[in-house]
Design goal:
The chain is an alpha/beta fold and 402 residues long. The protein has helices spanning 2-6, 10-31, 41-61, 65-93, 96-128, 144-167, 175-184, 209-222, 237-247, 256-280, 291-301, 306-317, 332-337, 351-361, and strands spanning 131-135, 138-142, 197-203, 227-231, 284-288, 324-328, 378-381. A hairpin with a 2-residue loop joins strand 1 and strand 2. Helix 2 runs parallel beside helix 4, helix 3 packs antiparallel against helix 6 (144-167) and helix 11 (291-301) runs antiparallel to helix 12.
């Protein structure tokens, strides 16, 4: 109310400010999932807090009512995105038994902070009072409410920096490049095969993909279907030669871009000579790794752009994506204990690399999976379910390669 009065608008301006802030916050909460979907959610949280802070500073310093209303909408929307993203990340990180209690505690803390802010802000504004800052033709003349809003915005900036420093899952990768890639566009278009059924199992090294692929293949074959079991890299004669280059420890020092292109070359040959012909004759194809692995390993693990990696794979495969992708999730520490042979070039990477790869397979929290007999959590990525050519129940088409 005090800031609305300083702007010369009275009760009408006050009502519009409240509507802009509260309405935009609600919209931000509801639409946060669609905001820059290819950007790391942890980085989005820090970015949303930063935008909120900058917008509040501008709200306090700009004297024009129409501009202030626009900035209030921006601040409210960014705050809503930050609130939803933070809630999603907490749900993702908290253990299932403690998730509800943690959420309730944070909601109570947020309500308490809002109440204290509502009481303290007018007192702080009154204590600051009107001031004129500047000299000559550049003078900022505002009331205490304006400076209070600017102060709150300024305090949010170090909070955003702290959030990014403590939670960033893309350390070493410039934020500006990730943001540029996110603004450029989302994942490439997908085109599942109209015949057959293509299922890809993804996950880090030691997650149990090969074991699960073989068990699933045996079960499907027992139902009378033709099953083609394959893998990346190395499922074709040319692919085996590429695999020896990619995974042999003697290839240490291979540049990140060369590594990404070699994987794309293997995938192009794999799809053209094995996967697509099998799908065209109506077979069920089970692949140990596909596009998601490149996005996770070369995009998240290496200092490369996940968006560009996905685009390279789209071109290499002529747009073919699985009908269903299942991600097997296991911690790098547990996976390392499962190794029974000397680690290859990628398995020998440091723990930080494998932690980034694991995060790359799960940029957003997955739905709660149904109970399975495997001890490894499995996450499936599924779109709205059309009918499957194989007649299998529960089949659906993958929404996008990640």
């Amino acid at each position: 109310m005090l800031h609305a009065d300083d702007l010369g608008g009275g009760p009408v301006t006050y009502a519009l400010l409240i509507l802009a802030l509260s309405g935009a916050t609600a919209v931000g909460i509801r639409t946060a999932g669609s905001v820059l979907p290819v950007l790391s959610r942890r980085r989005l949280l820090a970015l949303a807090i930063t935008v909120t802070g900058v917008a509040l500073i501008a709200v306090g310093l700009v004297p024009d009512t129409a501009t202030v209303l626009f900035l209030a909408v921006l601040a409210g929307y960014a705050a809503g995105v930050a609130a939803n993203t933070g809630h999603v990340l907490i749900d993702q990180e908290a253990e299932e038994p403690r998730r509800a209690r943690t959420t309730e505690h944070l909601q109570a803390t947020a309500r308490l902070a809002m109440g204290i802010g509502a009481l303290a802000a007018p007192l702080l504004a009154a204590a600051i009072g009107p001031h004129r800052i500047g000299s000559g033709s550049s003078v900022l003349a505002h009331g205490g409410a304006a400076f209070t809003l600017a102060l709150v915005g300024a305090l949010l900036l170090p909070v955003a920096a702290l959030v990014l420093a403590k939670t960033d899952d893309r350390a070493g990768v410039p934020l500006r490049r990730d943001l540029r890639d996110a603004l450029r566009g989302s994942d490439p278009a997908q085109a599942p095969s109209p015949t057959g059924f293509f299922l890809a199992l993804e996950g880090g090294d030691g997650a149990g993909k090969s074991t699960q692929v073989q068990a699933l293949a045996d079960w499907i074959r027992a139902k009378g279907h033709e099953v083609v079991v394959t893998r990346e890299p190395g499922a074709t004669p040319i692919g085996k030669r590429l695999r020896s280059i990619l995974l042999d420890v003697s290839s240490a020092g291979l540049s990140n871009r060369a590594e990404a292109l070699l994987y794309a070359a293997d995938r192009a040959e794999h799809v053209d000579s094995l996967v697509r012909p099998a799908l065209e004759r109506g077979a069920i194809v089970l692949s140990d790794r596909y596009i998601d692995s490149s996005v996770a390993y070369q995009g998240a693990g290496r200092d490369l752009s996940p968006t560009e990696i996905a685009r390279i794979s789209r071109w290499a495969t002529d747009g073919l994506v699985p009908h269903l992708t299942v991600v097997l999730d296991v911690s790098p520490e547990t996976a390392r204990e499962r190794f029974t042979e000397a680690p290859d070039r990628l398995e020998s990477e440091p723990p930080e690399f494998h932690a980034r790869v694991r995060a790359g397979f799960s940029p957003s929290p997955p739905p709660t999976p149904p109970a399975t007999s495997s001890s490894t959590p499995a996450r499936s990525r599924r779109p709205s379910p059309p009918s499957c050519a194989t007649g299998s129940t529960g089949c659906s088409r993958s929404p996008r390669p990640r």
